[in-house]
């Protein structure tokens, strides 16, 4: 999975094994992005890639299931890179940058992404579920690394993991509601939700409170977090209520 | 699905068709609660229910798949009743009461619940996924009915739906971490999370803000919500940070 998919070259150039494999996976990814797995056939993949069906089988003897898993692993690798953003500066900005990558992926892989996360398709198995779980876990690990909490408490881990689920659920709802909300509003809402979940948890958990104090020092004064806090406090004081 | 499962009666009493069906479903539910679907056989169900294998097949000619779906529908019916709590009084108390029902169910159906929500098991299909989705949608509808917002805005709907996902994810994590956190702490954390998500959203959405103002009037002065707001404001003011 290490080589990046390449666009099909002119017919006279012979693709290397890795290039051909990458091309077939990229073609499959594009098809799975537009249709649910049930509606994608190996013939479609062969036609779209401009190769013969036997050639697809030579690379993927396990047929559609194997090709689907390969496409999924490739997507998972891409998703895991979402939060590989710069590790310095305000956390809220890093979070927003990671979400921008993630949401662009969701935007691009709509149908396939929905089918996969909703499960129940003919090609879902324990293995595909495990791949999706790997992405979730990797996302949680990356977020925690950005937070630089050496020993996250149980409540802090719970916040991070449930926030990942919130991101996933919000993406599915966004696709389901035909991408009505502008992506940057969805991103800001997700950042706000994470901060809110942390703040509420900090009220009962010392590790989370310590993390928030440390993180606040890197936020821009009067910036996104300060404005969020202002709005939120206004909502919670009797005059605002 | 209308009759409740009954415990197996003494051998000399003939169960009615509905009673027998209910007994087999209850037996299957109990087995699926202790083991992943792959590890439950029709023989296990027959043995546990004290009946013959052919008798199980007479009621469920589709075999394990059909029995699994029946058990699932029965669980779904039960889950949908969770938020059928009194429709008066403070919302935070009603939410807590609904969560108590839900978490008791999770506690009781541990393994089966995990297998189902994680998907990828041999018995998951589009149909079982649809049943789980039905429960999610029903939960969102019930929560919105309690909130008495005639026309919920898109952000308010998003909060309710993603909170349902948070509840689900937190339950899975709770099971995964071997029920370490006391259930009432998990419940309180989930109530707090919902309020926090609403407050943050209210800062950008008028419908949510109006709802919060209306709901605040039914909360006990100095009660759970006031205390949550106090703690939260303290976390967000420079002195608290």
UniProtKB/TrEMBL annotation, chains A, B:
HTH tetR-type domain span: 18-78
GO molecular-function terms, A-Z: DNA-binding transcription factor activity; transcription cis-regulatory region binding
Stretches assigned to coiled coil: none
PANTHER family named among the record's database cross-references: HTH-TYPE TRANSCRIPTIONAL REGULATOR RUTR (PTHR30055), TRANSCRIPTIONAL REGULATORY PROTEIN (PROBABLY TETR-FAMILY)-RELATED (PTHR30055:SF174)
Family annotation (InterPro entries): DesT_TetR_C, Homeodomain-like_sf, HTH-type_TetR-like_transc_reg, HTH_TetR
Stated name of the protein: TetR/AcrR family transcriptional regulator
Positions of the DNA-binding region: 41-60
Gene3D superfamilies given in the database record: Tetracycline Repressor, domain 2 (1.10.357.10)
Keywords linked to the UniProt accession: DNA-binding, Transcription, Transcription regulation
Signal peptide annotation: none
């Amino acid at each position: 999975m290490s080589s990046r998919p390449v666009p099909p070259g002119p017919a006279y150039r012979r693709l290397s094994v890795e290039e051909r494999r990458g091309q077939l996976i990229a073609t499959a990814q594009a098809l799975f992005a537009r249709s649910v797995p049930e509606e994608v056939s190996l013939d479609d993949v062969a036609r779209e890639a401009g190769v013969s069906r036997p050639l697809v089988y030579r690379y993927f003897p396990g047929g559609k299931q194997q090709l689907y898993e390969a496409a999924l692993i490739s997507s998972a690798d891409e998703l895991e890179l979402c939060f590989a953003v710069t590790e310095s500066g305000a956390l809220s900005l890093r979070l927003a940058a990671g979400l921008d990558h993630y949401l662009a992926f969701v935007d691009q892989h709509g149908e396939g992404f929905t089918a996969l996360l909703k499960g129940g398709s003919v090609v879902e198995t324990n293995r595909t579920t495990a791949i999706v779980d790997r992405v979730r876990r990797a996302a949680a690990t990356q977020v925690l690394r950005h937070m630089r909490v050496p020993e996250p408490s149980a409540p802090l881990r719970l916040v991070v993991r449930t926030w990942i689920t919130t991101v996933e659920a919000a993406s599915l709802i966004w696709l389901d509601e035909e991408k009505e909300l502008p992506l940057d509003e969805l991103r800001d809402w997700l950042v706000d939700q994470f901060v809110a979940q942390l703040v509420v948890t900090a009220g009962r958990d010392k590790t989370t409170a310590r993390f928030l104090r440390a993180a606040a020092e890197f936020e821009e004064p009067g910036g996104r977090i300060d404005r969020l806090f202002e709005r939120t406090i206004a909502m919670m004081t009797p005059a605002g209520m």
